[in-house]
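Appendix C reproduces, verbatim, an entry submitted by the partner laboratory led by Prof. M.T., so that reviewers can inspect both the input and the predicted structure.
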Amino acid sequence: MIRRAAPALALALLLAAVAAPALAGGWAVDSAASAFAFVSVKNGEIAEAHSFGELTGEVHEDGAAEVRLGLGSVETGIEIRNARMREMLFQVADHPLAMIHADIDLAAYDAMAVGERRMEVREIAVAANGEQAFYMAHLAITRIGEDRVAVSSALPILVEASDFGYGAGLEALRAVAGLDSISPAVPVTFDLVLAR
């Protein structure tokens, strides 16, 4: 379910929610232990998995969560495709980041024991390319240590290229690659580890 908002920003789709389980004090995304990925489908039947290598973020003591996704770090397994996505789709020279925001009730997680897992649905705001969209994210939250919490997508989040004004860039990619089609709907998943 998506609500378009006034311009703000993009695909980063969903991670802010992942910052949800911070407990007390400030928490930060453990970039080395976290992952953010999406799947593209070309010519109606060829699915390919991609990821982003640059992922940072934090949850502040007041419950404000922010995750930053470096769009220039997109990794598709093919360098020319990486370059085309950076330049033609994400236009990273002008819009290098996707930002994800959520407001978290930290007190709700204080009682979680190490090893405890819960499911939650939370609204997140994603901003990219001067646009903003809202998504309902289904999350699996696990306290994996006294000072570590894992937040992952229990269901993929479906992001449309049009949510962030990426339609023209997607068409440019299709044309330059000589494809019949590239699906504008992209399933996004993430697995975040937060450390205090």
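The chain has a mean pLDDT of 87. Additional entries are available on request from the coordinating office.
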